[in-house]
Fold this sequence. Notes:
The complex is a heterodimer.
Chain A: H1 3-40, H2 45-65, H3 76-93, H4 98-120, H5 126-145, H6 147-150, H7 175-197, H8 199-209, H9 211-216, H10 221-247, H11 257-270, H12 275-295, H13 300-314, H14 318-334
Helix pairs in contact in A: 1-7, 1-8, 2-7, 2-10, 2-11, 2-12, 3-4, 3-10, 4-10, 7-10, 8-10, 11-12, 11-14, 12-13, 12-14
Chain B: H1 2-32, H2 39-56, H3 61-82, H4 92-114, E1 130-132, E2 137-139, H5 140-162, H6 164-174, H7 176-181, H8 186-207, H9 218-233, H10 238-258, H11 265-277
Helix pairs in contact in B: 1-5, 1-8, 1-9, 1-10, 2-3, 2-4, 2-8, 2-9, 3-8, 5-6, 6-8, 9-10, 10-11
Amino acid sequence: MTMAAMNDAMTSAPGKGRKLGRDLAGLAAILALAVLGYFLFPNNLALLTRITAIALLVLSLDLVTGYCGVATLGHAALFGSGAYAAGIAAVHFGITDPLLMLACGILGGSLAGLVCGVVILRAHGLPQLVLSIALIHLFHEFANKASSWTGGSDGLAGIAPDPLLGHFEFDLWGRTAYVFGIVLLAVVFTILRLIVRSPFGMLCRGIKEDPIRIRAMGASPKLALMKMYVISGAVAGTGGALNAISTQVVGLDSLSFTLSAESLVMLVLGGTGSLFGALTGTIVFMFFEDLVSAANPFHWLTMVGALLIAVVLFAPKGLYGTVAGLVSRWWGTFR
Amino acid sequence: MQTVFSIAVDALAYGMVLFVISIGLSVTMGLMRVVNLAHGAFAMIGGYIASYAARDLGLGFGFAVLFAVFGTIAIAVPIERLLYRRIYGAPELTQVLMTIGITFCIIGIANYVFGPTLKTVPLPAALQGSVDLGFRSIATHRIFAILCGLSVAVALWYLIEKTAFGVKLRAAVDNAAMAAALGVRTEIVYAVSFAVAVGLAALGGVVGAELLPVEPYYALRYMVTFLVVVSVGGAGSIPGALVACLLLGGIDTAGRYLMPEFGEFFFYLAVIAIVCVFPRGLAGRTR
């Protein structure tokens, strides 16, 4: 047993019920927000579905960055691979069942996760960042070049998914896609809560703190990180497949450096090392972007930049981390 | 033979421009340990100021360059005092977030002030045209870029190896706390080297405006290239950065000439290969 896992065992023995309660509360919050979004923005479900897909990407980035301490600016490679895997399965192999497309996306994402993990985990710090940047550009150029498969810069169009479970058609308003996305998000969130709290998840946190000590304890940091990368690939692939199914087109932008950088920004905005932080960051950033770019398309980048600087200066733990810290302090003074 | 020669000249010019811009990044990264993603934005500001000075104010090229270098320093030093100072020693992710934020702001403002179109820096008559070498002619501007790169390299080498400031700088790079304890005012060393780095970035932005055209998304587009060069060369090493610039400039230019349809595929493949073999950069020191 590692030190970290023992610590966890000690803290979780009395607080197990409370953690389960927090899981259920988180799940309830997701579903409540989803219902709220459905009724508040009935004409903008496409945006909400897009947020859900990006939330999956940011969650998967949190797994490697927040829990394992891997700095990467190339995480969209996993997302885009999932999206292209689902899209290519539908267009070139005639697999149009949404659940099978999802499976293809997960497989594609996991494979990309394996490849990226092998390369990125070879270095640390700045070289690691540079490797991830080089990888996302390689993926992008490759997808651009293999245009007979991916449609190149025109995008992969003509994805026509069958009705979900044979009953629910993907309608023009995107209701089915939205509900599908929310269900996926809830399922993935639950699984990830279990994973990050398992001994394996604690091992990964231990590696983030001190890899040498973990190695001295007899565990292999590299193997654990690699596993986490593949899991992360599966999650990102889910998001990619959801995006491909809901928008019925896959563009080169899903494999872009910009998307990778944005997802990292969302994660740090919400707070790393917490699944709630990843979700908060995604929702806040995407809504902010949508709001500001609609209000003033000329200045939205400036405002996003100012938001980032403000977060670093005034909320260094991210929005969720800072609010959670304030709430627990407030709770402490009133008890 | 003709192709090889023109690839070599273009690669050399491109590599030198890369060197002038990214050597400042390399020094600040080695010194302050800041992953400064906004460095490209400073080069872009230099390009814009030079373009404004030369085209709208009608100044000569030399004055435009000076204007650009000092104007960019004047813009960057307050940013260093107000924002960068707070992220020295912060985790990498925080630094990335902050400097991306600064980059976004600068892009947005540049887009607003100068518009989304390409800006050119008009060259003086002496730098237009080409020089005949007898068997082949070279564009004068390329020679100018190469000479600029070489003189920057020599000047920096002299500054860092031969002057008292260089001694303090090297001491601060090796061990900032110990240098401060021995009476080196590291804050001033930081501020001066940041200003020099930004000035060099602006110079590179102006000199390289023909090769890396100035437009609002310049900062994002080439930021990655500069970061890659620094990482491949090893942060804080001038010879490393020079070798990395020439190597990567050569690979990129050759790739563009010989296989343009592959874009930057070979460039990034080479980057991955080099970083995997030399995780600390070509001239990186073990810490």
